[in-house]
Amino acid sequence: MANRSPSSARRAFSVVELLVIIGIVIGVISTLVVGLSIATRRARGANTEFLMNSIASALSRFKSETGYLPLSLGDPQAQLGVTPATARGTGTVPTTGWARDVINAAGLPMVNGAPNYGGWSADQRRLLQRAGSATALPEFLLGPGDRSADGYGWIFASGTPDTTTAGYREQPVLGIRNPGQDGCWGAISNPRSGQNPNGLYGSRNLAASTPSGNAEKSNLFLKGKSLGPYLEVKSDSDVGALVGFDPDGRPQVAKAGEVPEFDAYPKVLLDYFGNPIMYYRRGFVNSDPRQFDPSWTLADIVALRPARFGSGDDFDSMPDLNNDPSASRAARAAEYGLFSAGPDKQYDPFVRSDDAGRNEDNIVRFGP
User: Fold this and answer.
1) pLDDT at 87 over 50
2) Is residue 89 over pLDDT 80?
3) For the chain, which has fewer Cβ within 10 Å, the N-terminal or C-terminal residue?
4) Which residues pair with 367 in a beta bridge?
């Protein structure tokens, strides 16, 4: 070892030095990757908030034309057995509409017109927590369905327009026929003959009369003013397909190309993390969407509650399944709420704060 030449000593030192440099470079790259990841999440979060503001503006325009906010569509409990192909509207009009039915939260225990929180069972609390809609925003603001859904636009069968219907003459494809006084094309106040009058997709009476079968698809009474679209969709990545629900009612979505017959599925608006943007609105009474139901507010919806509160920002509302009653004053005053599950794409709809922190990064916007 003592006889090692100076040149070999320099080579040994150079190897150590190289390893140190490599370590420094790896550390710098790791820091940059983490920094870029954080910056990307922040940018996507900011874009999601901007999208929510755009949706809020669209909702305001919708309300100025119709006098009410869009309804919440799609009770997962009633939709799990319905296939998108059936709900497409070809053939016999289905009884249920794969998340296109009006959500009905009736049957919850009340005392003197106010919620009896102490008397609610866990199942009844879960029922109200499932009152968020993934399909209402595109259904009312864009009108992506065919003529059997809202009386406007083309009818597609096997991927091609049906040129024999009156709807074929109506372009552009996006837009809706005025939903009428009940907010759901007559499905609540004037349902089609033989259908359940509770706002089911199959109850939609798109004409002024009571047609039979699928006659409303080409009924000439449906000519007239169309509304919207109220929101600009810049790319296919902004819209997803609702393909199912998990056991807790959270929507499952796919993008174009990920499922066959993408156009057959009801559509959802996606945030910049790929989550469906959920829409919550106050309930209404007497089949009139202009009259808000005073017995509950959006403060009762656990998903809209922040993981943390500032001083004086909270009050006691319906307890979550951990019996935590903390709720937002902003939610109590709101007419509607928009919800994104945020970067982690997870949320707990029944517990405000859990050890996993699933609600920590949720993004919520209230309106008006």
Assistant:
1) no
2) no
3) N
4) 336
